[in-house]
Design goal:
3 domains, 393 residues, Fumarase C, Chain B, domain 1, two-stranded antiparallel ribbon, Fumarase C, Chain A, domain 2, mainly alpha, 6 strands, homotetramer, two-stranded parallel ribbon
Chain lengths: 393, 393, 393, 393
Amino acid sequence: MKLWEKGTKLDKEIEKFTIGNDYLADQELVEYDCIASIAHAKMLFKIGILKKSEVKKLEKELNAIIALNKKGKFALKQEDEDAHTKIENHLTLKLGALGEKIHTARSRNDQVLAALRLYSRDKLLDLRKKTALLIDALKKLAARNKNVKMPGYTHMRKAMPSSVSLWSGAFAESFGNTIKMLEFVSDFINQSPMGTAAGYGAPLEIDRKFTASLLKFGKIIENPLYAQNSRGKIESLILFAMSYITMDINKLATDLLLFSTEEFGYVKLPDKLVTGSSIMPHKKNPDALELLRAKSAVVDSYLFQIIGIAKSLPSGYNRDLQLTKEPLINGFKTTEECITVMILVISKISFDRERCEKAMTKELYATEEVYKLVKKGVPFREAYRIIGKKFVD
Amino acid sequence: MKLWEKGTKLDKEIEKFTIGNDYLADQELVEYDCIASIAHAKMLFKIGILKKSEVKKLEKELNAIIALNKKGKFALKQEDEDAHTKIENHLTLKLGALGEKIHTARSRNDQVLAALRLYSRDKLLDLRKKTALLIDALKKLAARNKNVKMPGYTHMRKAMPSSVSLWSGAFAESFGNTIKMLEFVSDFINQSPMGTAAGYGAPLEIDRKFTASLLKFGKIIENPLYAQNSRGKIESLILFAMSYITMDINKLATDLLLFSTEEFGYVKLPDKLVTGSSIMPHKKNPDALELLRAKSAVVDSYLFQIIGIAKSLPSGYNRDLQLTKEPLINGFKTTEECITVMILVISKISFDRERCEKAMTKELYATEEVYKLVKKGVPFREAYRIIGKKFVD
Amino acid sequence: MKLWEKGTKLDKEIEKFTIGNDYLADQELVEYDCIASIAHAKMLFKIGILKKSEVKKLEKELNAIIALNKKGKFALKQEDEDAHTKIENHLTLKLGALGEKIHTARSRNDQVLAALRLYSRDKLLDLRKKTALLIDALKKLAARNKNVKMPGYTHMRKAMPSSVSLWSGAFAESFGNTIKMLEFVSDFINQSPMGTAAGYGAPLEIDRKFTASLLKFGKIIENPLYAQNSRGKIESLILFAMSYITMDINKLATDLLLFSTEEFGYVKLPDKLVTGSSIMPHKKNPDALELLRAKSAVVDSYLFQIIGIAKSLPSGYNRDLQLTKEPLINGFKTTEECITVMILVISKISFDRERCEKAMTKELYATEEVYKLVKKGVPFREAYRIIGKKFVD
Amino acid sequence: MKLWEKGTKLDKEIEKFTIGNDYLADQELVEYDCIASIAHAKMLFKIGILKKSEVKKLEKELNAIIALNKKGKFALKQEDEDAHTKIENHLTLKLGALGEKIHTARSRNDQVLAALRLYSRDKLLDLRKKTALLIDALKKLAARNKNVKMPGYTHMRKAMPSSVSLWSGAFAESFGNTIKMLEFVSDFINQSPMGTAAGYGAPLEIDRKFTASLLKFGKIIENPLYAQNSRGKIESLILFAMSYITMDINKLATDLLLFSTEEFGYVKLPDKLVTGSSIMPHKKNPDALELLRAKSAVVDSYLFQIIGIAKSLPSGYNRDLQLTKEPLINGFKTTEECITVMILVISKISFDRERCEKAMTKELYATEEVYKLVKKGVPFREAYRIIGKKFVD
């Protein structure tokens, strides 16, 4: 039974439409809803709503759900509506009237908000760890190719001398900064919505700070309406951070696709990384790199989707916001997968030292020649013009 | 076995990443790939590559696949890679060497292009039919509420007299035009890519016009590279048309959400269309309308995703384009569902004649008063100023 | 004075904010508003509101404004608010009470709608002409490079033999189809909003079909509220068509940037098309091509902007829609400029026949070898495997 | 003369196209380029390239340019190409060969990067200050309306009791968090690119940390290629923060547009904030609020534009990135203006206490009734069902 059902039956088609894929997204949230519910029960005990023995029973049963879920034995179905309903129904089945008490001083609204923030905090930590591994892979690539020079480009034209480690180091430093961004995002969202109920609080004296501290939230969201209004917004911030990561992965892939063309020839992709063609027997196609390039647009589209959904909604919860769950969860999955695959690619590719060196043609040193004159006292712009004449066809 | 495999094994993680959800999207294309393959086989007979008996066997087996697929018994798995591979493997299993001949004079590239165009042509026809049903529903709503006047708004402020049929008719006329757009899109994409192979043709004299006519394509794409370069582009056109439809659905939902507030009170939503709250026992929430409003942003994000994926790719097939399948197919599903649910909503809602009439306050008639003066010969702007004075607080 | 002023003064900051850049965008619409006003005046005569002599005076003065505007002597300033206000004020200044009559049976709302549709119809025709010139340039490029073979690519890897004319022809065919899309868009928007006033008609018997025929509109918009609701939507359609054009320009530029690298070397950019670096005296940078590649994202952002602005607005005019003017007009300017510059680029570049031929290495012919076996009766997939073995490292 | 000119003339049309509106955007950067150039000159002295007297002359002349620019007397024209060229040319005109020395150990690339970061740091500080003022205005609004209750909504339906200060406080808390985000963004971008030249350093021993400390950068960007690759990315981060601000402004405007309808009637907009209609003499239109609602989509489109432009570019500077300047600068202008106008609106509006109170109907207290039962020991879900029955029609 749905938490809100009171007799009249919802049209079947409407029911299917309103639930949509929500139950699939909610599978990710089961664990976090249980964790938050345990903290909520402990707080209800602290303020005298539940007895100690009741909290123990609830805690045991909620931990049992977490365990079931990890084994894939708490699968949501469309008729369950969402994780919160299924969990409350499960508790009521197991614990009778006690299950009917757990919803005291909360609403599905703040449950969703809490579960999403706890889930995201965990996933952001995973992203930071993965990103650190990618930095390692880039540093190892540089170490494997110490002293390998290659041309540096601007405007896709040879510009000045560069090297594998300069190229690789650019991404390593960038990802290092991105980790700081992920930390900021994590802190930013780490505020407790527990107890804000449907955006207007609950008419009971509760101890929101206690619940927050149990869940290791940095602070509580003071204004209950703000808790609701933050929906969609924090998701957009998280997605932006993921867009930021995949922008770099897009650039890495773009570079590698170019460097591994026969024409450039700087990079070799091992056979384990390439696929073939159904018609051309000689082809070795860099599909993984192409998909890594493309996934950036996929992640961006999740960001746009969330922003678009949240646009022009009045204050307070609106059902539209339910749709932001899917792009959030898909965003995490896609970004994590992209980092994992990029780590693999970076670990397996090799640079062709010979081709790289051969490409170090003399125009790359034009600026150095200018500076030889500068060191002799020629003003920079004059030196530039003197050397420039050598390169007029 | 993959169509292109020649010994070396692809890294498992890379394999999983490159296949992704493609096999799920491809389920939609099985039927269309079979249809196109039958036409291709007939053409191969016409030019002397296959014997009549061979074509018969292939046609029979391909039709068997279509039948299996309709019963849900040709489900693609990740290890099948894609529909084309599974079908060719199935044919080879059933027909031996004959199955190995079907790929003559084609590539998976033009197979995908053909299947996508045939699939889209079908789905666009469905959308036209559904849209026509929505127009019907809107007309019936007007008929049910003949002579019900209601305020017309500009800037969300009462402007001039309107009516349920004026309001409803605005959407009916808009959807009527949209049907014309869908027809255009259908014609635009109805060009045969069959025989363009991997974008550079096949070194065989084939009869592309014959294949095209069997498949009822309006013409053939002349330039094989253009066939490849059209990938992502025609998908964006289709998605734009779906964005156009869902923009109207977004406006319909926005209006109905406003009109059905207690404060406006013009529209009543029957209980079958509303859901409840887990904390507030009195709530009747218009979730379906909110989701209809929000889905427009979802469809838009598919459009942006496709455009983003296709951006800055060089000519010829690039694997990035494979990712445009999912937003295309999801776009069709979402749009169809939105129209279906909107038809249901429009059929079930009622207008509150009393509340509508009560809202017909005198300022709505200010412009009529101006025109009474105009008819007596007062210049419009002067009449406007005379009546305007009545409304200064 | 503003058309709607009745005594109270608007806050200065609010006035500046609400007018924004609108007066700049409106400069483009002056001519079209005058043309529509002349038709409107003729209709007012037909239904007996204006005398013949009055229409003549109005027509003369409106033509005078068009002439002034062409000479740059009807420049809108921020205090003019918009084109419609300035024109009506100008007429009243010149013709007294007669100027105050022209607004009979219309609103600024339908004036804007009409001017925008007339303007867009004209600009779409310009785009069609320009696109046809670009097709010419592409065909001439093919003719200049008859018989120049070059590698065809898939996945950015050499695939099969191609040629300059195959490559160039792919774009020519694509732009040919795009011209058909532009024609459709032109027809789609060519419906008369004149007489729909503020979305609820005017309380006067007017002859909307007569006005429409004078302005060569294909038909009238029947439902006045639909006329208003179409705002933002037709702009999005137009922008989509421009996005479609610039997607191809993006691909053309992407190809040429790759082909003109030293490493590929197929294309030479003459000095007239390249710029230099402030620090590297040897550089010849393809800035124009890079900007042509990038402008596609600019045009797309106009499309997103329009869709975003129009999202979740209730029926009837909302001031938000005024902001769709700027991206529409900038879209036309950007797209026209891109086509113009691309024509110039295509006319000036040359292909390096020697480098192209040198690049025709043997793996490009692998598929041909497969087909030699196929012609001897070997099933395609078997022939593919035989030839494939030659290309295992 | 352009910094890179060496004889050949660029095609006029190409020149116009490549410069575009860049010279207009660059006006904003003149001051910051001068500031950075002074620091650069001091560093060149420190490492022995310039004499003390030379630095003094350069500093004096650069300060003179800043002063001229503040008076509007250093206006860039299209033929100036950009700020950096005009400044170097100006210095050379005034100081002869000394002007030709200032470009030593730098490139326009790192000049642009530095100027953009310094400019953005300043503008972000402005945004923080403005946002703080908006918080003040919201708090004053709450204070002016102490104890004014109003309905709280979910799903656009009355939910539970709320108040003006709860509503207003939700935005105040949100903007408070946004200020923290702006601080983060400011710190994130506050890294010195000075001395990274064109992305591959300069062949001179320079003291990058010294320059950075003079400009109060928090640290230097270590990897010169990363400095280049950060272009477009940091702009996207800044734009995201602005999107975050305008999302809240969009919601504030959406609420106020609803609350100020006659039907809701909670909010009164003074005449100074409303405009009229050209046809309906009674209208009082909330144009400013509508535009505030819409501008959010405009700012979002700048974000998408920047992300779109930067997508799929290989490492190192590409001219595409020049186009990110305009959306960045327009983003700052639009966001600042929105905050300013919203402060004005919030300061001028009033809540209608009577209408608010009248709207406090009994269903808003349904949840309180549930809790009365809960306090008596009835399990929550049971109490919910008991009270729920009262609200079945």
